[in-house]
Request: fold
Amino acid sequence: MAVSIQHIRNATSVLTLNDKKILVDPMLSDVGELPPVPFTRSFRRNPLTPLPVPLNFFENMDAILLTHRHFDHLDKKAISILNKTLPLFCQPEDQAFLQTAGFSNVHVVDDSIAWGGIQMRRIKGQHAKGAAARLLGPVSGFLVSTPADGSVYFVGDCIYTPAIEEAFRANQPDIAVLNTPRAQMLLGTIITMTAEDIVRIAQLSPATKLVAVHMDAISHCTFKRQHLRAFLQDRGLEHAAIIPEDGEIISF
Reply:
């Protein structure tokens, strides 16, 4: 069976696996419809870039996967237009909010869950260090797999930690989607992965195909696609990660 990831924008993707379309972290607002990111140095409204597909594109989904509910991963537009009866898989801390928002088919993934011939395993993450981690709240990654198709690890808004390193060592995922915009809060606190983390993971799990996303669309993200391409090229690592454009489909 074919596995594909269509990168929509920011952290929003559509994973096609086992003939199912799974919408990941839907932020569907038009340019400037969302506020600036709080506790950052930028006062620009978000998103900075338009959706590359029409809104009716999202009518043809089989499920939704949410790593956490910050507004650049689940916004009011997504809540208003998405089919509320679709299976929605999330971390435990987001269940009550999603049910209050009207989603009627919420599945909490404590450890792992099976659906439609697909296994989803949650891997706890950490959005930042110290007090910033408490401010930002819980985040998770998800390892999505089938025996025939292999595994796709959506790492989520997680900084590189020993636990993430162990997840790569233990699982050796076939594909990993990394949020690598070097997003910053006030005082320079880094709250996502960075270009240097791509190098670490490429060395740690060389068979894993890496896909770098979450760039160019949100105002507190300091590292753009062009910066990442130049960074990798300068180190002779231009093939270490796929850096998709908005709307681009990657087939594996």
Remarks:
- Residues 162-171 form the longest helix (10 residues).
- The mean pLDDT is 96.
- The chain has one domain: 4-251.
